[in-house]
Structures are given as structure tokens and as C-alpha cells.
Amino acid sequence: MTIQTFKLSPAAKSLSEIDLLKKPILLRMGIAHDDLPHTLSKAVQIFGVEVVRDDTAVLCDDSGKKIEVHEAPLCTLAIIINPAHRGQEKPFLDWLRERGVADAPLVLEWQKGKEIETTALIIQKLADLLLSDARKIAQANRELLALRTLNDNLQNRFAAVESFVDRQGLQPFDLAFSNEPVSSSSRSNVLADASFKGVSQILPVASAGVSAIAIHFERLAHRDEATLHAQLVTLEDRQVVEKWIIPFSRLHQGWNYLGLSRTLAGLRRTLKLQLHIEDLDDEMPLLSLGGLQPLEMFQVQDAGNDAPLLKNSLAMQVWCGMPGVLLPSWANYLPAQSGQARDEGFREMPLANGIIDLATLANTEEIAFEFPAIMALPEERAIACHPPSTGITIGRLPAACPPKILRISSTAMIDNDQSQDVDFALVIAGDLNSARQLFSEARGAGSGEGFSGWTSVTHGEEARINAFIAEQVGIWQNIYFATRMRNPGDNAFAWAKFRDISLMVNG
Questions:
Q1: Is the N end or the C end of the chain the one with fewer CB atoms within 10 Å?
Q2: pTM, whole model, 2 decimals?
Q3: Per-domain residue ranges for the chain?
Q4: Could you tell me which InterPro entries the record lists for this protein (predicted)?
């Protein structure tokens, strides 16, 4: 008896053939259907093997209707054959073998007076199959029980780890995004300019792992009875992930951390932070702003109509931890009032090691060292970019920026304590000339381009730099990265590296 795992080919179209692939059948060769016991044909479907030609086997049912079969039947109990036709089954067995049937079905001679013995052999094969299936089911149940036990143990261990992390305050956090405050001559007060619903800011990060959001106040109001209302919502389904109600007495000038009750996990969502002030009739506090933002969706908006108030985004930091884990008490400087988070939206994609290996020096006519100026370090998830004593070193990752890109980010760091300070920058552009113009700040980013600005880094410190694309285009763009000495001159030991490069795409 043979059970065949099959996949329908394009030729297998008739309902009769599909029916053959679903039910156990008995095949006959050299025997008329009427010569078989009536009770046997009632117990199981019996088909006669007519001929095998090319890739097709022709069978006939009890009414004599011929059926062309292109795939092996799912379960052939046996082939019963007239002893006078012995040997004619070989073409059919070869046809089965070509279709992946590893074990040929049993071939039994059908002789008058020995019908019961032949039927008994078929029943014995069927019983063996049932016994084998029963053993497999029992084994599967044992394995399922073992998996359930293992899952329970893992859940218990995870709960124990989570409890320990919570008690000891060991939840590790990474700064996933940082938009530092910038000085503004306009001194725009977005809270005062917005409607009564306040302001909103879409977070330019993937939702998974978000643990805390920091906002920066340049100036606070003096009335302690006023309160700051903040909530984190999802754009896809308008669910409130967390909310905070914070008396002004608990706020202070500088960074204020809004801690989530639990690090976000589950489905990706696009997150938006909404802020408004209650019980304050006089001068509004002054929220700090980040740099100019080329993407309108990431500019600070009026929460009442989602229209940008300025071309800046809010100064903010987004911290991430292990998804699903409770935040330790020390992290919840301003804990959330809501608890249950329902996590599709933005997706953070780390740059693959295969892409990192493609890093090359772009401005070869300007830069020459005794060692490679650009060096791919996939084992460190980094690219080394050694700056010259004067000028800049520009590296290139060809066609590494997909059409749906919103932001490219990287951690800038120096891997030698004898190095002087180094400036780092990222650019999204179509060619080197465009990248040069952006690095030199001769113009602003155009369609399909992005520029992070220059960020200075000292050894022992790290900075997360971000380049937002000004307008999405339907082509793949190049990524350019550059370094220069903050103070031209001594570039010895300037082991500058772009580490943990990631792309954020929409959807």
C-alpha cells in the first residue's frame, strides 16, 4: 500500500482525476469489473488500468468511462491482476515511480477460488497502514506534549527573567533616535500657536521595542496646577497605546522622559505622540524644536487638523528595549497611566552585511592613504571611514537606498582614544556630485535626497545621526557617508566608524 504526497500539475484539471487523488482506490489489470465480487466494489472504488502512454495513465471506472490521469493516485491499496497478464503491470509501476512514488503498491494475482485469501492480504496491508498511522499519531502527541512542556518552561523562565530585570532595574535601553534641540531665532512656541488639542509628532521609528520617549522643554510655566496631557496613538487603527497626565510640578527644564508601562511588541504600527496643556491660561511652556525636517509627515503638527505648524520637528529622543518586557522603576520617570499596548507601519531594516561589503571610496582622486580609506567591517556591522587631515573622505554604498526609504541612520563613533574629534555625515543622493553639494551645504536636499548635517564626535562618545529623504522617488539611490577632522590637521588614529546602519521604510 502506498500513500503519495502530491502537487497538482497544470494538466490535472478533471474532477474525476482530482477525486482519484483524494480517496483510497484498488486497481485491476486483465480483470473485468463484473468478475469481481459485488461486495468488494461497494467497499472501495475499483479502477481498471487501460494503458500508459507518455505522461498519462488511462483508467476506467465501473461504468467503463475512461479517465486520463496525470498524477499518481494518493492511496493505491493494491493492484489485482489476472495471472495471465502478469508482467503488464511494469509500465504502470514505472509511471508511478516517475511521479515520486517511492514504494510500489502491492501486486496480487486474482484467481478464482482464492478471492478470500487475496482480499485478506489487502485487509492486512490496510491494517498495517492503520497501525503505522496510530503509532505516528501517538508519537506526534508525545512530541506535542513535550513542546507544550518546553513552551511552559520557557514562559516561566521568561517571567522569572522579566521579574529579575524589573527588580534589579537591569532593562537595557538603546537610543534608537535622537533629535537634539537647536537654537531658533524665531523662538516659535508651537504649544501657543496650536489649537486647543495641542501638537502632535509622528515618531520616525519602528514601533517594536519602543520603551520611552523624551521631550525637551526650553522653558516651563510657573503654575504648578497646570498639567501636561500626552498620549501615544497608532495611525493605522487609532488605538491609544499609552497616555500620561503629568503635573507641571514634576516637569523640569531640559529632557523629560515619558516611560511606557511595557516595551512595545507585536505588529508594527506608526506611532504619533500628542501633547496638550490643561489649566494654563497665561504663557505656554516652550517646547524645544529640532532641525528643519524635509518630510512634511515628520514636522510638528497641530493635533486638531494634522497640518504642520513649522518645518521643524520636535526635539525628542526615542529609547528602545527588549520587546514585551516591563520597564524597571528607575526608567519610569514619568510613568504612563494606560497599560495595554496594541502594536504595521514603519519598519526598521538593518543594513545587511552583504551590502556593507559593497562600501567603496567615492572621491578617489582626492583621498589616498597607505591603507584603505574605506573599509567594510561586517563582523562589527560597521564601515570604517578614515578622514584626511584636511578635506573630507566620502564613501559610497551603491543602490543601497530603496524607493520607500524615509530615513537612514547610523551610530557614529571613534575606535581609538588617541584620536582628535571627527565630524560625521550621511547623504542620500543619485551621484557623487550631488553628494558633494550636500556635504558642502551648498544647497538643500532635493527630491529623493537626504542630508544628516555634520555631527561632531569625541572618543568615548557615540552619536546617532539621521538623514531624512526630502521626497520619495521610485528609484534606488546611493548612500554616501563622509568624515572630516573637526579641527583640520592631525588625523592620526582617527579610526572613525559608521556602525549599525539602518533604514526605515514605510510599510
A1: C
A2: 0.48
A3: 2-127, 174-337, 353-506
A4: DUF6212
